[in-house]
Amino acid sequence: MGLKNIFINLMNKLFQFWEKLPDETKQVIIQMIMEAYEKIVRAYYQAHQKNQNPDQQTKQNKA
Predict the structure, then answer these.
(1) What does pTM read for this prediction?
(2) Residues 62, 50: Cα–Cα separation, whole Å
(3) E-assigned strand segments in the chain
(4) Most CB within 10 Å of its CB: which of 36, 37, 57, 63?
(5) Phi, psi for residue 50 in degrees, rounded to 5
(6) Contacts of 21 (CB under 8 A, 6+ apart)
(7) How far apart are CA 31 and CA 45, in angstroms?
């Protein structure tokens, strides 16, 4: 069995499991994923902003 088949089987099992979950549980899982994703993106954006404008951050901290 190749890696592609293993991946396809894994995805099929995951979808079968997902279909068995109640809608309320799916909503909770999706909400948790979105919150985690938002935190990651927010942290990345803030780090990117600090790296782009280190002089401006220093001036703001002094003010």
Answers:
(1) 0.61
(2) 15
(3) none
(4) 57
(5) -65, -40
(6) 29
(7) 21
